[in-house]
Amino acid sequence: MKSMQNIQQITNPRQSLYILALMLIATTSLPAQSLRDIEILIGKWTVEERHASGWWEKGERTCEWIMDSTYIQCETKARSSQGKERTYRFLINYNGQTGRFEMTGIYSNWPLKQHDAIRLDGTGMRWTLEEIAAVGETTERRATIIFTDRDNYSWTGRNLNRAKNTTTEYTEIGKRISP
User: Fold this and answer.
1) Which of 24, 25, 20 is nearest to 10 (CA)?
2) If both were cysteines, with which of 20, 82, 101, 109 could 86 make a disulfide (CB 3.0 to 4.6 Å apart)?
């Protein structure tokens, strides 16, 4: 009989509304992530990427707010150790439905698109990138970006090409030119 009273207490409509209200208040009071959490990117950067094979690429990257500040776009223009030039862009947003930052990369010298999820540590100065999916892609990507301060970062990554069974390791160093 006592357990029946407990069930009745739990299913009391007034208490159910009260519990629901508390849950909503607790949920809405949690700090939400937003693009402001990664606005450290905004500005102009010099970038230098080096691969373990000896290949390198140097260039400039400009990151800015676009589309009513719902995305950050980073455009890079670079030249490789082989003298080839390319342009590529990263479009980054916070996806409220998935609860994560997402980045899409498009490249002038590569027909596929890169799609990555970005997770921030508690300080916002260490980011982990993991491949979401790319149609036709055979490469698995993982990377870490560490900001040593607001003006310097290192981006280390590893790309595993499943089709060729090869691995490419790289490091990119970024230095802010202007805010």
Assistant:
1) 20
2) 109
The three-class DSSP label of residue 87 is strand
**What secondary structure letter does DSSP report for 13?**
H
CA–CA distance, 45 with 62 (Å, rounded to integer): 6
Ramachandran angles phi, psi of 55, nearest 5°: -65, 145
- The string of pLDDT tens digits covering residues 123-150 is 999 999 999 866 666 778 899 999 999 9
Residue 11 backbone dihedrals phi, psi, to 5 degrees: -90, 5
Q: What per-residue confidence (pLDDT) applies to 134?
A: 62
- The angle formed by the CA atoms of residues 53, 55 and 61, to the nearest 5 degrees, is 135
By DSSP bridging, strand 71-80 and strand 166-178 are unpaired
CATH architecture of 35-178: Beta Barrel (2.40)
**Spatial contact of 129 and 143, defined as CB atoms under 8 Å apart:** yes
Angstrom distance (rounded) from CA 129 to CA 121: 12
Q: Is the pLDDT of residue 5 over 50?
A: no
Torsion sign over Cα 50, 51, 54, 55 = negative
**Token pair belonging to 142:** 């993982």
